[in-house]
């Protein structure tokens, strides 16, 4: 629907419409959805085994792919790092919430992935991108700005608020929650519309870029290796049934659009990141069908 409305001109300039939708969902819809999802969930379900699985799958896939790229290819350090990042950062926000809601029954299943990535993994890989593109460590001021960015992230703030309310067993009155639920309803349609708009005018896998093999490698790792590590970690932790299915589904999400944003910011293999985001987004349908056949 986002692609159709963008192509038809109903929403004006597609780039501006996507900008508005992305900001509305990032600053308003997503935090509201996180808060109401947390208040309807069990704190152990968020901070227990699922976040351990998300951490192991993300860090394990990223480290393994970085090692493989450095040992078995002759690509640059930048290409190697971006390939590893594309292989291990899941789209927990734009795709995680809708899939968790419609496939798993609750958007809360996306929260462990978002928490791990926003609070831990994003600062790590952005630090790495800075080092490989500039050849030096970031200044203390840049590090402080990064910390402030993590702490001030609306999703992180909503998560902290929700966890505090859960831990203190605070019952929020319905008349206060009703407006928050209304804002939360904006999140998933807004994310999906924005993604559809992002497909307008894209020309992925251009031969002259020379990234097709790396995109294929990153896609295979993101949709194959990362879910496999999640499944193995979940089994070790004693997860079974729907709980195991949920963590593997979240690991099989496509590469996050934030990876392309970071690559653009550091001018690091931008087309590789962009193409991997698009190809994994298309390929995740097949990956989820396979996961459903095996574990659903």
From TrEMBL:
<feature type="transmembrane region" description="Helical">
    <location>
        <begin position="110"/>
        <end position="131"/>
    </location>
</feature>
<dbReference type="InterPro" id="IPR038770">
    <property type="entry name" value="Na+/solute_symporter_sf"/>
</dbReference>
<keyword id="KW-1133">Transmembrane helix</keyword>
<keyword id="KW-0812">Transmembrane</keyword>
<feature type="transmembrane region" description="Helical">
    <location>
        <begin position="244"/>
        <end position="264"/>
    </location>
</feature>
<feature type="transmembrane region" description="Helical">
    <location>
        <begin position="214"/>
        <end position="238"/>
    </location>
</feature>
<dbReference type="InterPro" id="IPR004776">
    <property type="entry name" value="Mem_transp_PIN-like"/>
</dbReference>
<feature type="transmembrane region" description="Helical">
    <location>
        <begin position="20"/>
        <end position="39"/>
    </location>
</feature>
<feature type="transmembrane region" description="Helical">
    <location>
        <begin position="186"/>
        <end position="207"/>
    </location>
</feature>
<dbReference type="GO" id="GO:0005886">
    <property type="term" value="C:plasma membrane"/>
</dbReference>
<keyword id="KW-0813">Transport</keyword>
<protein>
    <submittedName>
        <fullName>Putative membrane protein</fullName>
    </submittedName>
</protein>
<feature type="transmembrane region" description="Helical">
    <location>
        <begin position="276"/>
        <end position="295"/>
    </location>
</feature>
<comment type="similarity">
    <text>Belongs to the auxin efflux carrier (TC 2.A.69) family.</text>
</comment>
<feature type="transmembrane region" description="Helical">
    <location>
        <begin position="45"/>
        <end position="68"/>
    </location>
</feature>
<keyword id="KW-0472">Membrane</keyword>
<dbReference type="Pfam" id="PF03547">
    <property type="entry name" value="Mem_trans"/>
</dbReference>
<dbReference type="GO" id="GO:0055085">
    <property type="term" value="P:transmembrane transport"/>
</dbReference>
<keyword id="KW-1003">Cell membrane</keyword>
<feature type="transmembrane region" description="Helical">
    <location>
        <begin position="143"/>
        <end position="166"/>
    </location>
</feature>
<feature type="transmembrane region" description="Helical">
    <location>
        <begin position="80"/>
        <end position="104"/>
    </location>
</feature>
